[in-house]
Amino acid sequence: MVTINDIARLAGVAKSTVSRYLNGGSVSAKTKEKLDRIIAETEYTPNAFAQSLKSKKPSMIGIIIPRLNSYATNEILSSIDEELRNKQYQLLITNTNQDIDREIENINTLSRQKVAGIIILATVITPAHMKAIRSSGIPVIFLGQKAKDSYSIVHDEIEAGRSIGQHAADLGHKKILYVTVFEDDVAVGQLRKKGVLDALSEYKDIEVKVITSDFNYQKAYEQALSYLPKSDATYCICATDNIALAVYKAAVTLGKKVPTDISISGFGGYDITNLVTPSITTVKYHYKEMGRIAVENMIRLIEGEEVLKCITLGNEFQPKESTAKL
């Protein structure tokens, strides 16, 4: 790989001259012509990360994600990447594998690497998170979870939950199973569940049982194989589309027909919910819009402008084939 030292040696100039040329500084016309030619011949590409570290105005944005195998994460990331490229910023991604300690460590690491700002796809927000953010001295935006003393962009989880809960009630179901996730995840584990239960609580003849599952598809599937045979529920509301897919597979494995024996729905609006038969009822979340707004707000914060502390995005209920009248 050609380095800046190789370019300097081939041109017969100092490394600092090449650096000045690459950063748009002043060099003689003769030197510029020579460097233009050598860089074209060698197909040299400057290291954007190294340039950002040296620049007085960093052009790197750090992003911390909880896991790699997530539809929502991938949708948000692709949107952020496209928007940042259009604004001449580079993206530096770190994965935490849902390890909170690693998440906090990544905040500190990114701030030491002099990124211009950090976007966090959060599952939980702890006092340790906020301490690391205050120490960083750079703009930080949380996506998916509301932070009291920082900037955030969230989905309207309660409204999403209410729409699914109301749908189950409208279809006449009286025994409902709600498969949630751990409550440390305030958005999914608390607010989404609250929306569902609030809607169903308006019907005195509806019985709801709540079970805690896992975001991981395989774990959710294995758990469903255990609790579905013991349940007499005719409708299973799942906290995510991933869990809904796992429950769907478990139901089929156990010989149940969807939606004849059991209706199933999720949250997220993943593309794959349209690829299975029957297609899965869901609430579509606007992940790409979240990524676009995150970049727009981050750039404004970097440039010293003020933005709203919290932005709440709407969602879209999508009834499909996996739910039916009792």
Automatic annotation (TrEMBL):
InterPro entries in the record: HTH_LacI, Lambda_DNA-bd_dom_sf, Peripla_BP_I, SBP_2_dom
Highest taxon of the lineage: Bacteria
Record keywords, A-Z: DNA-binding, Transcription, Transcription regulation
Residue ranges of every copy of the HTH lacI-type domain listed in the record: 2-55
SMART domains: HTH_LACI
Name listed for the protein in its UniProt record: LacI family sucrose operon transcriptional repressor
Species per Swiss-Prot/TrEMBL record: Youngiibacter multivorans
Taxonomic lineage from the root: Bacteria, Bacillati, Bacillota, Clostridia, Eubacteriales
